[in-house]
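Bit of a strange request maybe. I'm writing a small parser for structure token strings and I need a real example to test against, not something I typed by hand. Could someone generate the tokens for this chain?
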Amino acid sequence: MVADFTDLSLSAAQLVSSGLVTDEELTASGLVDPGGNVSLHQLVASELVFLEELIRDDFVQVDDLSVGDVLLGNLLATPLVDIQRLIADDLVGVSALLSPILICAP
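Reply from user aminoacidic:
Good idea to test on real output. This should exercise your parser:
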């Protein structure tokens, strides 16, 4: 969900050169600010580009997530991760396993 990400200013020129959107589409939508940038939240809300496309093309990174504390049990209840993968990737240590909350830095 785009609201979970910092509202980045994306370069309109880079978006166009990536092929995700045309200059005409951005101009017609009125999304480009005087500095030639586009708000991530407004761009996704316009439905010109999907968040997944921006992630795939490296416009949005994991570091841009602005979520706070995540309940470890809730995370593990999703099909997104499993405990073995979290441990293998050094994302969860013993202290996290003893606590019900996984702390994610914003």
